[in-house]
């Protein structure tokens, strides 16, 4: 590994840190600028390691292609979330070509909801990412979220 490779890996780490920070602080323009125009956002396994999660249409609901489709899809999801905290750690980043890389990140995320049957949930899992360097900047070309565990707190029924 040379200094250029180490620099690329550090830039990818910063990219993922911004992903978490921009999402949690609702800086949407900056968040969506982290993706390539044709990015893939795969949340089909966000509730479990099973891609279909056993529910009708889950394979379509959680899979978006293109930055604009991702933005539209997430806008509907985050409308119900009052706050969130994402922590990604223990990165396994591999440079696969001069301008391409893959990464696996351990994930710990917590979401609190405005109203509804859920008060909050705390998830534990992984992101599997593909990165592309475009115009000198690393961007997310695809991301897949899988959770190994989700702890749910139900809203009070009173």
Describe the structure in your own words.
It is a single chain. The chain has 158 residues and is α+β, with helices and mostly antiparallel strands. It has a single domain, classed as Nuclear Transport Factor 2, Chain: A (Roll), CATH 3.10.450. Helices cover 27% and strands 51% of the residues. The protein has a 6-stranded mixed β-sheet with strand order 2-1-6-5-4-3.
| Overall mean pLDDT | 90
What does the radius of gyration come to? Answer: 16 Å
Distance between the termini: 59 Å
User: How does the overall form come out from the CA principal axes?
Assistant: globular
CATH class: Alpha Beta
Helix residue percentage: 25-40%
Q: What's the assembly state of these chains?
A: single chain
Largest sheet, in brief, is: 6 strands, mixed
Strand runs, count = 6
Provide the succession of SSEs. HHEHEHEEEE
Strand content: over 45%
CATH level 3 topology: Nuclear Transport Factor 2, Chain: A
Widest sheet, order of strands? 2-1-6-5-4-3
Number of domains: 1
Write out key terms for the chains shown:
158 residues, alpha+beta, Nuclear Transport Factor 2, Chain: A, globular, 4 helices, six-stranded mixed beta sheet
Summarize the structure.
This protein is of the alpha+beta class and 158 residues long. 27% of the residues lie in helices and 51% in strands.
Mind sketching the topology for me?
Blueprint: H1 3-24, H2 28-32, E1 35-45, H3 58-61, E2 63-65, H4 67-78, E3 81-97, E4 100-113, E5 118-134, E6 137-154
Parallel strand pairs: 1-6
Antiparallel strand pairs: 1-2, 3-4, 4-5, 5-6
């Amino acid at each position: 590994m040379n200094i250029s490779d180490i620099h690329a890996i550090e830039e990818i780490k910063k990219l993922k840190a911004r992903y978490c920070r921009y999402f949690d602080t609702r800086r949407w323009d900056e968040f969506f600028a982290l993706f390539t125009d044709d990015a893939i956002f795969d949340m089909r396994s966000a509730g479990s390691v099973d891609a279909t999660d056993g529910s009708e249409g889950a394979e379509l609901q959680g899979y978006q292609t293109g930055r604009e489709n991702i933005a539209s899809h997430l806008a509907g999801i985050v409308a119900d979330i009052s706050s969130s905290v994402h922590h990604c750690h223990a990165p396994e980043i591999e440079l696969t070509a001069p301008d391409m890389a893959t990464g696996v990140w351990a994930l710990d995320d917590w979401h609190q909801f405005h109203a509804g049957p859920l008060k909050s949930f705390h998830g534990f899992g992984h992101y599997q990412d593909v990165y592309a360097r475009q115009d000198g900047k690393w961007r997310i070309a695809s991301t897949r979220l899988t959770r190994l565990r989700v702890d749910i707190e139900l809203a009070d029924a009173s």
